């Protein structure tokens, strides 16, 4: 068994060694695969719809099924990871959703897609709770938002890669083969993860100096927290409120933006690829920049909570112009407006995720993210039903939906501002006194 390292006192604060970024690289790749698997159905929707003949309401039911399963997976896999650890938790989650992704290729109707999406949602629900827990394990507070932004940018790369795979593989072997390809890639990643990942205290590639740097910040008191007690902590409520108000908008973008561009501008699957690539490239930048901004503010002397809130506000303001997208005459104007809004969401999300590790003991991070993600996924599922029925009733009029997207992040930022105290030290002090 590997020995746990003890860092000498004079190494504290010295950022010697960089193996923690290798872990972020692995999390980036699996998050890319996660969103590649998730977004493939949305990208292929016009093609599959023409083949299997389902309407927007039925598609909303498919998204609803995924949302409910994702909610269950978020909560259960988050709690599971807190018990068994990051290494096992993420490997199990990835194997479940990759098998489910491949199973989409065997589907012949709406019912089949519902069952495939349920299995996919259960597995995919484990990705973010586990990744956020891993960031809290491997990074000090001042670096966590950037680290989160980097791995979270994989969701944008996944969205970027999905239309490329969809167009290329579908043109050669049919839409079913696209699901087989993405499912296989995930199993390859699991093999690398199992071989490489260990906790930093046990990893042979982590020096004592790097371990001291990882543990160099004041952290929330470390104690086990029962899953039933998570709602007693402001960090849990911060994430729940932020996720409930913004995640349904993100799900709308991922599930319906390809259809919006297809129906408004009458582009085919091949022509749809470049606009989606541009959108997700913009989103990729937003994820990293949003995380970098709050980390930079902290290093410049701003408080942790002040830095996070300023970053959230900047991202929220960038989502407002998206309300103009349905009225744009040019596809590229719509693409830029949607790309800016989605980029802002990812910057917002990087800071929202990081606030959980700012406010919760490390042993409860995955559980808190899992609980909040579960609640927001339930609401996202019902919002998908609403979106499908609204579009069928209005003959694909997206105006109201983009107005909601323009307002949600500003409301979320205001709610978070009033929920958290001004200084992180005040929260940590109150939690220490309560022990």
Question: Could you explain the architecture of this structure?
Answer:
By secondary structure, the protein is mostly helical. The protein is 78% helix and 0% strand. The protein is built from 16 helices and no strands. The protein has helices at 19-52, 56-84, 86-103, 110-124, 127-138, 141-152, 154-173, 175-196, 208-214, 234-265, 269-299, 304-319, 331-359, 365-393, 399-419, 424-434. Helix 3 (86-103) runs antiparallel to helix 5 (127-138), helix 7 (154-173) packs across helix 8 and helix 7 (154-173) runs antiparallel to helix 11 (269-299). The radius of gyration is 21 Å and the shape is globular. The chain starts with 18 loop residues before the first helix and ends with a helix. Mean pLDDT is 84; it is low at 6-15.
Which structural class should the secondary elements be placed in?
mainly alpha
What order do the helices and strands follow? HHHHHHHHHHHHHHHH
Radius of gyration: 21 Å
Q: How many strand elements?
A: 0
Concise synopsis of the structure shown:
With 435 residues, this protein is mostly helical.
